[in-house]
Design goal:
- By secondary structure, this protein is α+β, with helices and mostly antiparallel strands.
- The chain has two domains: about 5-80; about 95-175, Arc Repressor Mutant, subunit A (Orthogonal Bundle), CATH 1.10.10.
- The protein has helices at about 40-50, 60-80, 95-105, 115-120, 130-135, 165-175, and strands at about 5-15, 20-25, 30, 115, 150.
- The strands form two sheets. It has a three-stranded antiparallel β-sheet, with helices on both faces. Strands 4-5 form a two-stranded parallel sheet.
- InterPro entries: MethylDNA_cys_MeTrfase_AS, MethylDNA_cys_MeTrfase_DNA-bd, MethylDNA_cys_MeTrfase_DNAb, WH-like_DNA-bd_sf.
Length: about 180
C-alpha cells in the first residue's frame, strides 16, 4: 500500500449521545465510532474499530468535518436520516464483510431484519455467525445501520459488546421501531 493520508477530526460531541470519533482519507470516511461516554473512550474505540495504515497526517478539512457533524446532528438529535454526504473508504476491507454491510445499508429506517434473513440475502443462509462477525467490524455503524439487525428472538447483541444493547435499543427507538 502506498503513501496514504488520513485526516482526523478527533471527536464530535453530540448532545445527549456522547463523543463520536472519526477519521477519513482522500478515499472517503475511514471509520466512525458509536457514541462513547468520554472523548478518550471514543479515540480508543476508533483505533480498535479500524487500524489506520501508514502514518497519520493530521489536517483540517473544514468542509468534510462540517458535513459529518451536520449528518450526525440531524440523525441523532432530530431522527432525520439522509444519505451520508461522503463516500466510504473500503481500502483493505474483506470482500465478504463489505458485501454484508452494503446489504445492511439498504435497510430503510424503521425496518429491521434478522441475522438469518441477512445471511440468506447475501447468498449463504448458514453464515449467520459470519454475518455477526461482519457487523461487529462495521467501521461505519451509524451510517450502515447494523442496529437494524436483530436476533430471531429478541434484540440480539450490538458492536460485539453486551452493554451496548441499550444503545442499540435507543437507536431503534430514534427510528420509530418499538420492541
Amino acid at each position: 500500500m502506498g503513501q496514504f493520508t488520513i485526516f482526523h477530526k478527533q471527536c464530535f460531541s453530540i448532545d445527549k449521545w456522547g463523543f463520536i470519533a472519526c477519521s477519513w482519507s482522500k478515499g472517503g470516511l475511514w471509520a466512525l465510532t458509536l457514541p462513547q461516554e468520554t472523548e478518550a473512550e471514543a479515540k480508543i474505540s476508533l483505533q480498535k474499530l479500524r487500524k489506520i495504515p501508514i502514518e497519520v497526517a493530521v489536517a483540517a478539512e473544514a468542509e468534510v468535518e462540517e458535513k459529518i457533524t451536520h449528518w450526525l446532528k440531524e440523525y441523532l438529535q432530530k431522527g432525520i436520516r439522509n444519505d451520508f454526504p461522503i463516500d466510504f473508504d473500503w481500502t483493505g476491507f474483506p470482500l465478504f464483510y463489505k458485501t454484508v454491510l452494503i446489504e445492511v445499508a439498504k435497510i430503510e429506517a424503521g425496518k429491521t431484519k434478522t441475522y438469518s434473513e441477512l445471511a440468506a440475502q447475501v447468498g449463504n443462509a448458514k453464515a449467520v455467525r459470519a454475518i455477526g462477525g461482519a457487523l461487529r467490524r462495521n467501521p461505519f455503524p451509524l451510517m450502515i445501520p447494523c442496529h437494524r439487525i436483530l436476533a430471531q428472538k429478541g434484540i440480539g447483541g450490538f458492536a460485539g459488546v453486551e452493554n451496548r444493547v441499550t444503545l442499540k435499543h435507543r437507536l431503534l427507538q430514534l427510528e420509530g421501531i418499538k420492541l
